[in-house]
Amino acid sequence: MKVLVVYDSVYGNTEKIALSIEKELKSSCNIRSRRAMDVDLSELEKLDLLIIGSPTQWNKPIKSIRYFLDRIPKEKIAGLSIMIFDTRLPSNFVGILGHASEKMARAIEKKGARVLSTNGFLVSAGGMAIESTEINRAVEWIKTIEVS
Ligand SMILES: Cc1cc2nc3c(=O)[nH]c(=O)nc-3n(C[C@H](O)[C@H](O)[C@H](O)COP(=O)(O)O)c2cc1C
Protein backbone atom coordinates (compact mmCIF):
# COMPACT_ATOMS: atom_id res chain seq x y z
CA MET A 1 0.00 0.00 0.00
CA LYS A 2 1.33 3.43 -0.98
CA VAL A 3 0.84 6.06 1.71
CA LEU A 4 1.81 9.73 1.94
CA VAL A 5 1.75 11.71 5.19
CA VAL A 6 1.47 15.47 4.62
CA TYR A 7 1.83 17.63 7.70
CA ASP A 8 3.14 20.88 9.04
CA SER A 9 4.15 21.85 12.52
CA VAL A 10 5.27 25.07 14.16
CA TYR A 11 6.39 23.75 17.57
CA GLY A 12 7.01 20.09 16.72
CA ASN A 13 3.95 18.36 18.19
CA THR A 14 2.21 17.59 14.92
CA GLU A 15 5.52 16.48 13.47
CA LYS A 16 5.97 13.99 16.34
CA ILE A 17 2.60 12.43 15.54
CA ALA A 18 3.31 12.39 11.77
CA LEU A 19 6.70 10.71 12.24
CA SER A 20 5.29 8.17 14.72
CA ILE A 21 2.64 7.23 12.15
CA GLU A 22 5.31 6.90 9.47
CA LYS A 23 7.41 4.70 11.75
CA GLU A 24 4.45 2.49 12.62
CA LEU A 25 3.48 1.87 8.98
CA LYS A 26 7.01 1.57 7.61
CA SER A 27 7.19 -2.21 7.85
CA SER A 28 3.84 -2.80 6.11
CA CYS A 29 3.52 0.11 3.64
CA ASN A 30 5.43 2.15 1.12
CA ILE A 31 5.18 5.34 3.18
CA ARG A 32 6.77 8.80 3.04
CA SER A 33 6.11 11.92 5.03
CA ARG A 34 6.43 15.47 3.73
CA ARG A 35 5.94 18.94 5.10
CA ALA A 36 3.05 20.56 3.24
CA MET A 37 5.21 23.15 1.47
CA ASP A 38 7.58 20.45 0.18
CA VAL A 39 4.92 18.30 -1.47
CA ASP A 40 5.19 17.90 -5.20
CA LEU A 41 1.66 17.22 -6.45
CA SER A 42 2.96 14.33 -8.58
CA GLU A 43 3.50 12.51 -5.25
CA LEU A 44 -0.29 12.16 -4.97
CA GLU A 45 -0.38 9.87 -7.98
CA LYS A 46 -1.12 6.17 -7.43
CA LEU A 47 -1.59 6.68 -3.70
CA ASP A 48 -3.77 4.31 -1.69
CA LEU A 49 -3.97 6.54 1.36
CA LEU A 50 -3.23 10.18 2.14
CA ILE A 51 -2.82 11.20 5.78
CA ILE A 52 -2.94 14.93 6.55
CA GLY A 53 -2.00 16.52 9.88
CA SER A 54 -2.04 20.12 11.11
CA PRO A 55 -1.84 22.00 14.39
CA THR A 56 -5.10 23.67 15.34
CA GLN A 57 -4.48 27.42 15.40
CA TRP A 58 -7.41 29.73 15.96
CA ASN A 59 -9.77 26.78 15.41
CA LYS A 60 -8.45 25.95 11.96
CA PRO A 61 -5.50 24.36 10.15
CA ILE A 62 -2.40 26.48 9.69
CA LYS A 63 -1.81 28.43 6.50
CA SER A 64 0.60 25.99 4.80
CA ILE A 65 -1.96 23.19 5.18
CA ARG A 66 -4.80 25.39 3.94
CA TYR A 67 -2.66 26.29 0.94
CA PHE A 68 -1.84 22.61 0.32
CA LEU A 69 -5.55 21.72 0.40
CA ASP A 70 -6.35 24.61 -1.95
CA ARG A 71 -3.77 23.65 -4.51
CA ILE A 72 -4.72 19.95 -4.87
CA PRO A 73 -6.58 19.58 -8.16
CA LYS A 74 -9.91 17.71 -7.88
CA GLU A 75 -8.84 15.12 -10.43
CA LYS A 76 -5.83 14.09 -8.34
CA ILE A 77 -7.84 13.51 -5.20
CA ALA A 78 -11.33 12.35 -6.22
CA GLY A 79 -12.06 8.98 -4.61
CA LEU A 80 -8.78 8.89 -2.67
CA SER A 81 -8.93 7.58 0.91
CA ILE A 82 -7.86 10.15 3.48
CA MET A 83 -7.15 10.11 7.22
CA ILE A 84 -6.93 13.46 8.96
CA PHE A 85 -5.57 14.53 12.32
CA ASP A 86 -4.78 17.67 14.23
CA THR A 87 -3.09 18.55 17.48
CA ARG A 88 -4.96 20.78 19.89
CA LEU A 89 -5.41 21.98 23.43
CA PRO A 90 -7.62 19.95 25.77
CA SER A 91 -9.72 22.95 26.74
CA ASN A 92 -13.45 22.75 26.10
CA PHE A 93 -13.51 26.50 25.81
CA VAL A 94 -11.43 26.77 22.63
CA GLY A 95 -13.09 23.54 21.44
CA ILE A 96 -16.47 25.23 21.04
CA LEU A 97 -15.35 26.82 17.79
CA GLY A 98 -14.05 23.54 16.37
CA HIS A 99 -10.64 22.24 15.36
CA ALA A 100 -8.47 21.90 12.29
CA SER A 101 -9.59 18.32 11.54
CA GLU A 102 -13.22 19.07 10.74
CA LYS A 103 -12.20 21.96 8.51
CA MET A 104 -9.60 19.93 6.64
CA ALA A 105 -12.13 17.11 6.18
CA ARG A 106 -14.73 19.49 4.78
CA ALA A 107 -12.25 21.06 2.35
CA ILE A 108 -11.02 17.73 1.03
CA GLU A 109 -14.47 16.15 0.78
CA LYS A 110 -15.53 19.05 -1.42
CA LYS A 111 -12.90 17.82 -3.87
CA GLY A 112 -14.40 14.33 -3.90
CA ALA A 113 -11.96 12.58 -1.54
CA ARG A 114 -13.19 9.94 0.91
CA VAL A 115 -12.42 10.81 4.52
CA LEU A 116 -12.09 7.51 6.42
CA SER A 117 -11.42 8.98 9.85
CA THR A 118 -10.49 12.17 11.68
CA ASN A 119 -8.80 12.51 15.05
CA GLY A 120 -7.36 15.12 17.40
CA PHE A 121 -4.36 14.61 19.67
CA LEU A 122 -3.94 16.65 22.80
CA VAL A 123 -1.05 18.76 23.98
CA SER A 124 -0.78 19.47 27.69
CA ALA A 125 -2.45 22.76 28.57
CA GLY A 126 0.57 23.99 30.55
CA GLY A 127 3.63 23.06 28.50
CA MET A 128 1.90 22.82 25.10
CA ALA A 129 3.79 19.55 24.54
CA ILE A 130 2.29 16.40 23.11
CA GLU A 131 1.81 13.67 25.70
CA SER A 132 3.32 10.21 25.06
CA THR A 133 -0.13 8.72 25.69
CA GLU A 134 -1.38 10.76 22.74
CA ILE A 135 1.43 9.49 20.52
CA ASN A 136 0.43 5.95 21.51
CA ARG A 137 -3.18 6.78 20.71
CA ALA A 138 -2.14 8.01 17.25
CA VAL A 139 -0.28 4.76 16.60
CA GLU A 140 -3.34 2.73 17.66
CA TRP A 141 -5.56 4.94 15.48
CA ILE A 142 -3.45 4.42 12.40
CA LYS A 143 -3.61 0.66 12.85
CA THR A 144 -7.36 0.89 12.25
CA ILE A 145 -6.90 1.82 8.57
CA GLU A 146 -9.05 -0.13 6.17
CA VAL A 147 -8.51 1.04 2.64
CA SER A 148 -10.73 -0.65 0.06
C1 LIG B 1 -1.23 30.91 17.93
C2 LIG B 1 -1.83 29.64 18.47
C3 LIG B 1 -3.20 29.43 18.35
C4 LIG B 1 -3.78 28.26 18.84
N1 LIG B 1 -5.13 28.07 18.71
C5 LIG B 1 -5.69 26.92 19.18
C6 LIG B 1 -7.09 26.69 19.04
O1 LIG B 1 -7.83 27.49 18.48
N2 LIG B 1 -7.61 25.53 19.53
C7 LIG B 1 -6.82 24.58 20.15
O2 LIG B 1 -7.34 23.56 20.58
N3 LIG B 1 -5.48 24.78 20.29
C8 LIG B 1 -4.90 25.91 19.83
N4 LIG B 1 -3.55 26.10 19.94
C9 LIG B 1 -2.71 25.02 20.52
C10 LIG B 1 -2.05 24.21 19.38
O3 LIG B 1 -3.02 23.53 18.63
C11 LIG B 1 -1.08 23.18 19.91
O4 LIG B 1 -0.08 23.82 20.67
C12 LIG B 1 -0.47 22.36 18.78
O5 LIG B 1 -0.05 21.13 19.27
C13 LIG B 1 0.70 23.01 18.09
O6 LIG B 1 1.18 22.12 17.11
P1 LIG B 1 2.68 22.18 16.61
O7 LIG B 1 3.57 21.92 17.79
O8 LIG B 1 2.78 21.07 15.61
O9 LIG B 1 2.91 23.53 16.00
C14 LIG B 1 -2.95 27.26 19.47
C15 LIG B 1 -1.57 27.49 19.57
C16 LIG B 1 -1.02 28.65 19.08
C17 LIG B 1 0.47 28.86 19.22
Describe how the helices and strands are arranged.
Blueprint: E1 2-7, H1 13-25, E2 30-35, E3 49-57, E4 60-61, H2 63-71, H3 74-77, E5 81-88, H4 92-95, H5 100-109, E6 114-122, H6 132-142
Parallel strand pairs: 1-2, 1-3, 3-5, 5-6
Antiparallel strand pairs: 3-4
The structure holds flavin mononucleotide (FMN).
The site of flavin mononucleotide has 19 residues, from α1, β3 and β5.
Question: What are its keywords?
Answer:
148 residues, alpha/beta, Rossmann fold, six-stranded mixed sheet, 6 helices, 6 strands, 27% strand, globular, binds flavin mononucleotide
Describe the biggest sheet? 6 strands, mixed
Shape field: globular
Classify the fold: give the CATH topology. Rossmann fold
Q: How large is the radius of gyration?
A: 14 Å
Q: What is the distance, rounded to the nearest whole angstrom, between the alpha carbons of the first and last residues?
A: 11 Å
Low-confidence stretches: none
Strand content: 25-35%
Structural class, judged by helices and strands?
alpha/beta
Can you characterise this structure?
The protein has 148 residues and is of the alpha/beta class. The chain has one domain: Rossmann fold (3-Layer(aba) Sandwich). 34% of the residues lie in helices and 27% in strands. Strands 1, 2, 3, 4, 5 and 6 form a six-stranded mixed beta sheet that branches. α1 (13-25) packs across α6 (132-142). The radius of gyration is 14 Å and the shape is globular. The mean pLDDT is 94. The protein binds flavin mononucleotide (FMN). Flavin mononucleotide (FMN) is lined by residues 9-15, 55-59, 87-89, 94, 99, 123, 128.
